[in-house]
Amino acid sequence: MIVNPLAGVGGRLAFKGSDDRGRVDRALSGGAARPAPDRACAALAALPREVEVLAAGGAMGADLAGTAITEAVAESTAADTRAAAIALADAGVDLLLFAGGDGTAVDVLAAVGDRLPVIGIPAGVKMHSAVFGVTPRSAGELAAAFVAGRVRGDAPGEVMDVEESDLRAGLISPRLHGFLRVPIAPGLVQGGKARSAPAEAAAQAAVAAHAAELLDGVTALIGPGTTTQAVMAALGLPKSLLGVDVVQGGRLLAADADEETLLGLAGPDAIVIVTPVGGQGFVLGRGNQQISPAVLWAIGVDRLLIVATEAKLAALAGRPLLVDTGDPELDAALAGYRRIVTGYRQETVYRVTA
Question: What's the pTM value of the predicted model, to 2 decimals?
Fold first, then answer.
């Protein structure tokens, strides 16, 4: 096991990743939370006790469980992740678990390629790669199934990443870095992110027109995505790239807001608007962590509005929409059948699971 202890630090702060070490260090000095260790522990809890775990030293894994195979470092770097992956592969481990995001997946790929099967524990901000468990617990359950011999083979999972510096400059340029070997287990591993087709624009505009009618007199926290971008366009407002914007009465109150800003604007009339990640179905917990459990509890679980075109829902082939906020009680409260805006004055009911 390898844990990137800095993964996910920037999620609630509206960072677009944890690549910028200077920003992350400043965030940590200000009291920012580290979600990766807790999410790694959730995965480990699913493993049988008799499983031998070798881990990177210190905060990179051994502090949580297992026998350290590398020396501890004060704060891990990409080079430390790569060195740990090589050391574990050289030690002959059967399976490599890593906790992090897309950037960590790229480092693991660069280090071990297709030498051994790999499972990602979702703990970062950017998690578009098809190598992560649906939840941390799912990653652990898949590892347990692998150990018990209940998994038949593996399949290539794409490793995608977007440079955080490009996102801050207003550019989306996802790059396919390659493929990691991921054990085959339907329902436990997330798919890769699917892009919106150009033909979706008209359908998104219809969804947006209906959603805009529902916002009269309310404060709306509008999450990232091309469908929510269409909602902002229907309001005549610009959409921050992969950020959460707050609008009220046709005015932009905050652009690319972090958790603290959202909490300050989360009044009794507020509503949260989100759209699923294409191909994956995640509504919460992937790239919109600033809409945190604290924000959602403050607004109310019944004040979540999901918008998605019929084509986006159809692409899930009956699979449910997903929430992975890091708060099991909140995820359970959000689960169930929910109304989804799918067109102009058109809605459907669709299942959401924790």
Answer: 0.77
